[in-house]
Amino acid sequence: MTHLVSIENVDMRYGGASGTLAVADLTFKVDKGEFAAVVGPSGCGKSTLMRLVTGLHIPQAGNVIVAGQHVTEPVSIVGMAFQNPSMLPWRTTLDNILLPLEIVEKHRKRLRAHKAEYVEKAEHLLEVVGLKGFGSKYPWQLSGGMQQRANLCRALIHEPQLLMLDEPFGALDAFTREELWCVIRDLHAEQDVTIILVTHDLREAVFLADKILVMSARPGRVLREHRVPFARPRDLEITYDKAFNDVVHELHGEIANARRAA
Amino acid sequence: MSAVVEDIQKPERTKPLVARIDWVRASPWLYTIALFAIWEAAVRVFDLPYTILPAPSRIFAAFYQYWSPLWKNSLQTLYTTTLGFLMAVVGGLALGLFIGWSKVIYAGLYPLMIGFNAVPKVAVVPILVIWFGIGAVPAMLTAFLISFFPIVVNVATGLATIEPETEDVLRALGAKKLDIMLKVGIPRSMPYFFGSLKVAITLAFVGSVVSETVASNYGLGNLMSSAQSQFNVPLVFAGLLALAVEGIVMYSIMAWVEKRMTGWAHRSSMSH
User: Fold this and answer.
1) Which residue of A has its CA nearest to B183?
2) Fewest 10 Å CB contacts: which of A44, A122, B59, B214?
3) Does A69 reach chain B within 8 Å, measured CB to CB?
4) Burial level of B44, CB count in 10 A (0-12/13-18/19+)?
5) Residue B87: CA atoms inside 13 Å, Cβ hemisphere, count?
6) Chain B neighbours among A 153-212 (CB < 8 Å)?
7) Which of A111, A143, A160 is the last residue of a domain?
């Protein structure tokens, strides 16, 4: 299997030579089509990891290789979704979802001529996440959970090979969150996309991921890699199994240790 | 069915007059009338001479008497103010976009702007007169100078406060600075821009009238200063009233434009 993302001995320091070291000797790999989750104590450099993989930051030391290429500038094969849905309020939901197509080099030239085709694709994505018929609504007419669903559509519209999720469900209530777990699970099964999920929610990580990376306190590095043994497709019911909760418990212990070590 | 309809309508019709008036809509008129009524009463009760404070009735009489010069000079002031204001809109928008473009430009030009804004514009008028002679040009330029600052600051602020997440999402897709400005920055700063127009238009009146008072043969400023030198106090007040009316009209136009252009900003802030 080929690695889509490969991070080797990466150091990233903010604010010049005397600045804070956010991550040190960070090393991990994510295979193509894999679902990886990153957990760790707060301030462990999870967001830095996101920005390194997407090419928003270039590290001072080490290699970041995405899709076989050294990352030296933002890579346009990724889609990103943050906790804050950051929909543009002057655009309808549909137009918000189409926004990446106006940016990505490959699509922006043919967007005008093939508008109908792209709109159809956006409508399909809306249907997949359970927002059928909401495309003409403005973001502020949608609830928080619905905005986050639309946000996922926007992250996926340009068919990225890699989807980066930074605590996308952190601000949602428990029921909506579980609903969206299932949406993500189904998207991953259907779309052949590699996903890296940064989260504080250990149950979320265990339910969704194939592989969980536990990070240390600042400066962040990967302490341990867990394989999640549960077969796919997973049902929400497994979150109540003993085996599931044992994994969650173990992760919890490791992160508590990492916090103490800091 | 019809019986039900009648039941609902009946109390509506029998409501007393007081309940049928939309007090919110009526109150601006009522308060204005009340102000003039109290003013009139106070002048009469205290028997103030019209050279100190003329009663509204006296001012309206002056309005009637000097209708022609008032009308001509009002148009002149409106003309210089609007031109100066339009220059401020174009210049302010351009400079605001320029300043908001990068942090370096923002940091470099901001203190200069503050210093420039702190200079009293009445002190600048003599310089403008030296350069352009007396008349409409200095008035226009003073209106421009005084009103473009709020526009610049608001546009630059709108650009400088783009959410970092939005910027990250777009930059990760390979967006250039220009893309981010066109897709996010400029639409986002529009509510700030249109909001600033309301402030700017009233300031523009201040600028043009100050300049007309000091250095012009036309306009309401000039009319008032010559009326004052003849102790024609009711005419001075009539000029002030004309200015107030022009200010309100222009302000409401700007408020209407703001609402038309950036309705989403009002609705989105209301729903949160």
Assistant:
1) A99
2) B214
3) no
4) exposed
5) 16
6) 154-155, 158, 164
7) A160
Q: What letter represents residue A239's amino acid?
A: T
Structural domain count, chain B: 1
Q: How far, in Å, CA of B111 to CA of B120, rounded? A: 16
Give the list of residues 6+ apart from residue B138 with CB closer than 8 angstroms, or none.
B125, B128, B129, B132, B211, B215, B216
Taking CA atoms, what residue in B is nearest to A84?
A: B165
pTM of this structure: 0.75
The domain in which residue A143 lies consists of 81-160
Q: Is residue B199 part of a domain?
A: yes
B186 CB within 8 Å of a chain A CB:
no
Question: ∠ at Cα A207 (A205, A211), nearest 5°?
Answer: 55
- What is the reported pLDDT for B39? 93
The residues pairing with A31 across neighbouring beta strands, listed in sequence order, are A3
State how far residue B257 is from chain A, nearest Cα, in angstroms: 16
Calculate how close chain A gets to B215, using CA atoms only, in Å: 46
Mean pLDDT of A60-70: 86
pLDDT digits (tens, 9 = 90+) for B64-81: 999 999 999 999 999 999
Residue A253: give its domain's CATH number: 3.40.50.300
Q: Is A119 exposed, middle or buried (0-12, 13-18, 19+ CB in 10 A)?
A: middle
* pLDDT tens readout for residues A127-175: 888 888 888 888 888 888 889 889 888 988 888 889 999 888 887 888 8
CB atoms B173 and A89 under 8 Å: no
3-state secondary structure B158-219: HHHCCCHHHHHHHHHCCCCHHHHHHHHHHHHHHHHHHHHHHHHHHHHHHHHHHHHHHHCCCH
Check whether B169 has a pLDDT greater than 90: no
CB-based contacts of B198, cutoff 8 Å, min separation 6: B251, B254, B255, B258
Would you call A54 and B172 a contact, using CB atoms and an 8 Å cutoff? yes
* Sign of the torsion formed by the C-alpha atoms of B41, B46, B49 and B52: negative
pLDDT class for B13, splitting at 50, 70, 90? low
Amino acid at A135: G
CB contact under 8 A, B173 and A140: no
Residue of B169, B170, B187 with shortest CB distance to A90: B187
Indicate the residue type of A61: A
Q: Do the chains contact at B163 and A51, CB–CB below 8 Å? A: no
Residue ranges making up the domain that contains B123? 89-262
B173, B193, B268, best to mutate vs chain A, most A CBs in 10 Å: B173
Kind and range of the H or E element at A28? strand A21-31
